Amino acid sequence: MKRGRTDKASNLSIDELIRRYQAGEPCTALALEAGVSTTKIYSALRQAGVSIRPRGGDRAPSVRAN
Q1: How far apart are CA 55 and CA 7, in angstroms?
Q2: pTM of this prediction?
Q3: Residue 62 counted as domain residue
Q4: How far apart are CA 11 and CA 5, in angstroms?
Q5: What is the pLDDT of the chain when averaged over all its residues?
């Protein structure tokens, strides 16, 4: 995926992927829409210098019932 252009295997530009990923959209949803694997999305984001979120996102700590 090239900056500002769409990849042959994708219908989303890297700029759009970055914007949506940084807005909180899951990588799996981006990959599904782009028609590529999540691995390819993560690779493109890393190559663009984007920090990858931890799996599961920012979740509140769970509360255990007594």
Answers
A1: 26
A2: 0.68
A3: no
A4: 9
A5: 81
